[in-house]
Amino acid sequence: MSDKKINWLIGVIVLLLIIFLVWPMIFGKKETAPALSLEEAITLAGDWVETSSPTYLFDGSNLSLVNAEEAECLNPPCYKIEFSFESAMAGYGDRSDAMVDQVITSHNIVVFIEGGDVVEVVIDDVYTELERQEEYIFENSGLDENNEEVALLTNNRDVNIAQTAGVVSFSPSEYTSVKVFFSNSLNDPEASDCQKVYPVYRQVKNIPAIGRASMGELLSGPTAEEKTFGYFTNINPGVSINDLKIENGVAYIDFSGELLANVGGSCRTMAIEAQIKETLKQFSTVSEVIISVNGEIEGILQP
């Protein structure tokens, strides 16, 4: 075989090797992350508020889900999640160096999620805690002091973006929000973690016996709307509270016998225990929960 044919053959082999190595990188099947569900978006939004919102971190409490819905966007899935919460002082953001009124202030916070990320957060339609970095347009916002038209950089969402806002005072609410914990078939479809429970938010009377009120909400089970998000309870219907007291950080709660009726299997008993304990341990005065039924503690909710 001539040198020319040998060189040609080597060239073809090298080309085939390059194609073999590069082709999967360019045209291979790309793995994509599973689409974020509405329930997952609610959890993501709630976690963002509780860990990253300057206003909520400063003095916020009683975070409560108001509405959750899909939203149109360029990179679906997208969601608009709305919460309410209360601040102990008026104003927005970190007010450590500001003179503000010490008055309970109600807020509405909207979290926009796109493609699995929190992209924009707005409080009371006037204060932006997280500003979207794309899809911006210029809009005429009026005249400046020289009667010249001013252009405001904003985005295409129907919200009023502002970096500062006035102080607004509200009367203390007659109600407050509490967390109630249920299992969720969407978050854990295989029931792989029996003790994993998820919070929903309920409005209850702002009274001293708020622990009992929250347990009442737990025993009432998930609402019809919550069920559409996959929430369900492991607690039997008809269960009532005989007694609830908190002493030295320990909550002692005694239930009627219905709590144990036809309850079989370690997974369900662990789930019931988790629902009760997590609902009570949301309060700073409770670090431990002891469950009893008709006064009996020994062997209760044991697999």
SSE pattern: HHHEEEEEEEEEHHEEEHE
Mind describing the biggest β-sheet? 5 strands, antiparallel
In whole angstroms, the N-to-C terminal distance is 80 Å
Q: If you average the pLDDT, what whole number results?
A: 79
Indicate the CATH topology of the largest domain: GMP Synthetase, Chain A, domain 3
The parts where pLDDT drops under 50 for at least 5 residues are: 134-172
Strand tally: 13
- Proportion of beta-strand residues: 25-35%
CATH architecture level-2 label of the largest domain: 2-Layer Sandwich
What class would the helix/strand composition place it in? alpha+beta
What report would you give on this structure?
- With 303 residues, the chain is an alpha+beta fold.
- The protein folds into two domains: 38-155; 175-293, 2-Layer Sandwich (GMP Synthetase, Chain A, domain 3), CATH 3.30.300.
- The protein has helices spanning 3-27, 38-52, 54-59, 210-219, 224-228, 266-281; strands at 60-70, 78-87, 105-114, 117-123, 127-130, 136-143, 149-155, 175-184, 198-205, 231-232, 241-247, 250-255, 288-293.
- The strands form four sheets. A five-stranded antiparallel beta sheet has the order 1-2-3-4-5.
- β3 and β4 form a beta hairpin.
- The longest helix is centred in the first third of the chain and has 25 residues, at 3-27.
- The chain is flat and about 100 Å long.
- The model is unreliable at 134-172 (pLDDT under 50).
Which tags fit this structure?
five-stranded antiparallel beta sheet; 32% strand; three-stranded antiparallel beta sheet; flat; 2 domains; 25% helix; 303 residues; 6 helices; GMP Synthetase, Chain A, domain 3
